[in-house]
């Protein structure tokens, strides 16, 4: 309901605002201003509608035994509000009998109906209401309550609840005598809770009711304060004595705009939310989906995406399209080395972990008044992952959102190219560029900064440009989850206890994956060292060792690990901004130097700060193949070339005193020729499918990726477009595809 109301209001405001603005054809600023104005007005309205300072209720929801009644009394006392317990103050007074007597008298189904009717006939304002455990199973009564309050979910560990119920000897739980175990009964009940709550309180084991009550008040305050979680550009400079924060953006705006207007990248204005040790421990036994929802709820304000809608997106993203139910499992390789398998998604790379979710986030955040064209540069794996992710949107969403992937025509593997081209759909297209990835990425950034061109597209075609590379915050944020989840899996499997440090080793090109691990540490995961693994394009390794980022006379080398064949590392700017205490002026200076003079040097104090957390080294092509061979011979496990790069560097850099998690960023099936060369298999000149079948006959781990195998069986060759290394040529393709495909197709 919240999302519906927000967007109905947004539509009205946008229409009213757009109709009153005179748009100049050489600039797109007016339409962007109208969008910003609409969101601002929307948030004001939402805040006033849901303000709890007046007559709105605080409604506590949770399992039987979660402590709703006790916590409700404390919250009511702190706020000076009336406290209403649904069991005692509504049901028993309505029925003139105890709840347990009523349940025994009418049975489970009839009880739920009569309980719901009693709540529908009840109204209150300015109160603290403690629900029964079964109230959320009756839709009509929950909608009735939700209209006049905020629902706070007390999320108590299941085993804690079961222990409490045994001590309380409660006999009034719906379904209690059905023969189902209490654990299964409560797990079943939780599915009803997740669609109603506005805010969640993670209740740590052993936490006192007073502590939980304070958490409730903090969550209510956060829910109310819709302007508290904003984003700034890494190049943002706040003038002295500046009261108005004109350059801040909300999460929705950061996602839809992609790149800041000054060329910087969006980052949270405040620190990352941090979970306590007890809250993390609650997640040790959780599924990947459950971990994702809790972590992302902390990072995305419910005014941008309500918790229930976010949960739906996460379940859709990490559903049947992943080959492994654990989504991102951790496998023990040898000694104290572990492999984080990030390749079980539909396109076989770590990009799926964010790009199966990001399109749904993007579709939710955009206003209804414009079409959006997503521009993406890929060094290999991003392309097919973006095309696959955006092609999974609903029919209505695909009518307003399309994506173009630009890839280096001769800079990706044959399989990657076939996968990118074969992933084209009615709203997703691929364009080969006769250059390298760095040109593609730089060209897209320049297109975004060209206000004449973007303004023309907005006015002429009603189409706004955005991005889905890791420069987009909505793309980077979901990657934090798998780094946290990997650590929790090691705890769950008994390899470490919570609080013990680990190192992470990540093959790195654009710095997004390793930066996500930094953010996981900021949220409370005890990562000791971040080991940056480079291939022959080792500009990042050199920078971490010297503080000098130098592209002069450095040419991009094509390697067996093409996804990290990158020289201009975009997300490094975000990390430098963090290290430099959010000095936007310094970021502007450094990256202008890189753009104009192809190098920059950071101060010694920043180099030392960087080296406190980061180690770095690089791997030659020969070492990469040797690592694939030796790992297979030792353990029967086949590394892809990117993971092999990380393995070589991890072997060289880790000091053996704590575990190291090596990020496996792609499935070896995507690089069959390199794998066959590494394993000294002579029959390389075969079709892709026969190569994979041959590798499959080795019965290695991990097994063949079925989705990738199916891709090789597709005989039909799809057409795609190729353009020269000229930014104007890219612009021409963008406009042509908008004109002929997006506008032409969906205006019929």
From TrEMBL:
InterPro entries, per the entry: P-loop_NTPase (IPR027417), Shikimate/glucono_kinase (IPR031322), Shikimate_kinase/TSH1 (IPR000623), Thr_synth_N (IPR029144), Thr_synth_N_sf (IPR037158), Thr_synthase-like (IPR004450), TrpB-like_PALP_sf (IPR036052)
Domain Threonine synthase N-terminal: 247-318
Superkingdom of origin: Eukaryota
GO cellular component annotations of the record: cytoplasm
Residues annotated with N6-(pyridoxal phosphate)lysine modification: 351
Pfam families: SKI (PF01202), THR4_C (PF24857), Thr_synth_N (PF14821)
Cofactor(s) listed in the protein's UniProt record: pyridoxal 5'-phosphate
Record NCBIfam families: thrC (TIGR00260)
Family: Belongs to the threonine synthase family.
PANTHER family: THREONINE SYNTHASE-LIKE 1
Protein name as catalogued: Threonine synthase like 1
Organism, as annotated: Urocitellus parryii (Arctic ground squirrel)
Lineage: Eukaryota, Metazoa, Chordata, Craniata, Vertebrata
